[in-house]
Amino acid sequence: MAKVVKRAFKYRFYPTLRQAAELARTFGCVRLVYNMALQQALRHLQVAFTNFWGKRARYPSFKSKKKSRRSAEYTTSAFRWREGTLTLAKMDQPLAIVWSRPLPGGASPSTVTVSQDAAGRWFVSLVCDDVIEQTSASGAIGIDAGLDSLLTLSTGEKIANPRHERADRVRLARAQRALAKRVKGSANRAKARHKVARVHARIADRRRDYLHKLTTRLVRENQTIVIEDLTVRNMVKNHSLARAISDAAWRQFRTLLEYKAEWHGRDLVVVDRWFPSSKVCSACGALVERMPLTVRLWSCRCGTSHDRDVNAAHNILAAGLAVTACGDGVRPQRGNLRSGQSTMKQENPWATKGIPAL
Description:
It is built from 9 helices and 14 strands.
């Protein structure tokens, strides 16, 4: 059994000077059209303002020449695809693409997006139909996200947190200090900014590669995957942990897991953020009233000794299986966090109703 999905294949390419100049003009046109339309047409876009009022995005703003993402999307009438070569409109030769992986056999791109990142690298993304083989899997797993270990699985396995940003922190700090010393508007400052962007790009590339391999493995091995509904946006307000939380990239992990689970026909269950996964004994169901973050090992009155993270993963799995079996009330809530509540591992007293406390 197979499933056909729309899939983007992204490659790096190296434009000629003439192609780079033409693409730069195209990026400028895209930015101009967006900014001219913002006052009227975009004001009526329901999706943009739904995201704004839901606090998932900022108020739509003008695109800056320096800060906005440099990209342009080409439809089928604006590019030519022949025998594995891609030629964009107003260009007399194909792009020099580094084909790091093959496109699906017989694929024909429906749209092409060209972009340039802050480090000056050029990329082209081709959206094609791809056939995903629907392999069978019988496993079910609960996942507890953390910082000491990036993920703790209900099997007891702990997946190391590579801390990509910390590994390059010295290099990044050195580049940022050099940037701070340069005169604003000077050519040397532009070069220093480029070096900072290259360090950030290296960190982001390594993090994305690690998460892709990890999520692919989890999806291939398990039919049911249960995770927590973590509010990363509020968690990063904790200034002592914000840097580590951002480096862990829990939001990116969930995004990758969601679309891969859909591709492969897996069940992804998200447990309510208020569910007290760390404070409930997975053996007898008793609830501990207080569980500070410093407590990593604890014993229940039933005599069971727990690793905090492994116990949480067990409880997350059990809650997720309850959802799939009988629609138990642990689905994620869409409302905002309650005022005065901690942003770390929030727990709703109603979620513990009926559970005996220690």
